[in-house]
Amino acid sequence: MTQFGHVSHSRMSQTAPTDNTRYPCHAMPHATMVEKMSFLDNLENSLKALEGTEGSGFEDTNQRNARRNDERAAAPWAAKLKTSDWTAKLMREATVAGHKRRVRIGFFWLGATLRLEAVGQRLDLKPSATGIDAQFLVGNEVKKSIRIDLDGDPTKVLGQWLQVVDAEKSQNDAEAARLLEELKDEIAE
Fold it and tell me: CA–CA separation, 172 vs 166, rounded Å?
């Protein structure tokens, strides 16, 4: 040992066992260990891996092609949604309504879909081959879906969605007030 309590390398080599009887796998050269795994084991593993991906490859290709075809068919409606005055007015009106309610309304473009989100409620404007649908979502579940007319007034759709947002906000406010009262009672005790 050195003065710092460490074993020197020369000392370690003297104390290490020199025979391989204690650990028989150390006596076997590495190449021999690798050869122990048979050709059949490798073949079996390869076949299992192929079986896992065999059916899904063709299905994935079909799903990808169908999704691509849907996107191509919806492309004219997506372009109209992105560039229309209807969308610009919807965003302006939603921003004003959010300020009045003291609620942040987020706008997100997810590909061709415009998403409005506030207080856990979502409104997705999704282009399809036949037009644009407004989907009212809670989480990932569609609660209601209506067809959008880009020549119409966006405040009608916005008003319907804001009713849901207002209900959720009032529930959240009531829950927050209840929790605040509980906290005040705990502090007072």
Answer: 10
* Burial (CB count <10 Å: 0-12, 13-18, 19+), residue 26: exposed
Q: In this model, does residue 52 exceed pLDDT 90?
A: no
Residue 54 has, within 13 A of its CA and on its CB side, a CA count of 7
| Any domain includes 35 | no
Kindly report, residue by residue over 80-135, the tens digit of the pLDDT. 999 999 999 999 999 999 999 999 999 999 989 999 999 989 999 999 999 999 99
Q: Which residue spans within the chain are E strands per DSSP?
A: 106-110, 113-118, 121-127, 132-138, 141-148
Determine, yes or no, domain membership for 133: yes
Domain span holding position 121: 76-188
Q: Is residue 166 part of a domain?
A: yes
CA–CA separation, 94 and 185 (whole Å): 38
Task: Report the C-alpha gap between 118 and 81 in whole angstroms.
Answer: 21
H or E element at residue 46 = helix 39-83
Identify whether 45 is part of a domain. Answer: no
Cβ(118)–Cβ(131) below 8 Å = no
Q: How far is Cα 120 from Cα 164, in angstroms, rounded to an integer?
A: 10
